[in-house]
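Residues and backbone
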Amino acid sequence: MYFLNRPIYARLILCCCISAGTSAFAIAPVDSEPVVDSKVPLMGETERWSIHGQATYMLQQRNNFNSPYSGQNSLLNKSASPAESYSLSATAFVGTRLWQGAEVYWNGEMFQGAPFDGKLTGVGGVYNGELQKGAYAQPVFYTARAFLRQTIGLGGGQEHIAGEANQLAGNLDKNRLVLSYGKIATLDYFDDNAYSHDPRTQFQNASIFSMGAYGYAADTKGYTYGAVAEWYQANYILKAARLALPTVPNTAQLDYTLSKDYSNQVELTRTHEIYGRAGAVRGLFFQQHAFMGTYQNALNRAQQTSTYPPNITNVRQASTNTWGYGLNFDQALSQDIGIFGRWSWNPGAAETQTLDISKSLSGGVSVKGASWSRPGDTLGIGFAVNGISSAQISYLQDGGMTTFIGDGKLSYKPEQVLETYYSAKAYKELFISLNYQRIANPAYNAARGPVNIIGVRANVSI
């Protein structure tokens, strides 16, 4: 088996985590919206310390697919490159209370993994969201998050918040202001969704578990630095943030001054009930201000100098601006069935900081297994249709490369992603998932694909 060929320490870490069968499963280990387990305050239920952990292993294989040609950033055929991709992560979530309303959290993380072909290229919708952390044959250890949270109560009665990863159990005002500052992950706060938000437990394709055209702030491991303000008022949540972007696109060094390379975003959420079934609607706007290049400038320079193919890295300029928006909803249809959908857009003029997607429509359904006597299991079916701008199409047709895609030439069609997974509660808090993805027109190229990816995932939390 391929798993047996993984380094011995990777197998030992996973096996040790699996053995922790008495631990509690964290529903969404990277979700900032509070899990409310009681609409009234509870006595004696305030945590001073919180320690949680998770480990996730993903293994994927791809097929041989139609590939009459390939470029520097193409996804290669099974016959041309090893067909396996894997990732292994383990995270410790530690938190404690300081003064009244103040909490501090630290998350240490280990990551090891390899994308197909040894580099995360060849598709718009990345097939494994964990692989944003890079490619490492040996495990790397780092601080994933380290931040301070201050909650200011504004009345409206109290509710009890459950103890979760990066969330201390206790009573909070229903109306409140929450301020967070430090090293965080953007998707902990923005673009949440009840049924499609966490690649460790739900859908794995990045254009399904998040807004594909949302250029969120992240370094090469998926984390950023900055400040987030959240205002909870009745059934509304308003969030705003300034977060650091890399000083050079898609690199590790962030602009910690938050004055040269940064992203601003604001999101409004309205929660509701329809016939007693919970749902939410979210609207997001974001703006990026950073050292970036634009596709049109790269095309103009190539034409003026007769230098082909065009190269966007040669036309990067400070204070380049771009923006975008997204809409996001989730809705329970019954106790066991829920649906979700997203639409996101950006002008696609500047090079990406996240995914090579400038417009994306996605959605799907999530079904709990109670009807077949497996209440701990989940079946998910989702889709995404991704596109890019006319300027990027021309750039790729002329042989240009981005960080993530570039086949040398292009026969453009929107990229289409179909994903389904079945997550089974295998033993106590151990969940094993089977996953299938079909990516038609990978990297928007109708001359290549479709790519079929099958995978298995193991996840456990303590």
Residues 1-29 have pLDDT under 50 and may be disordered.
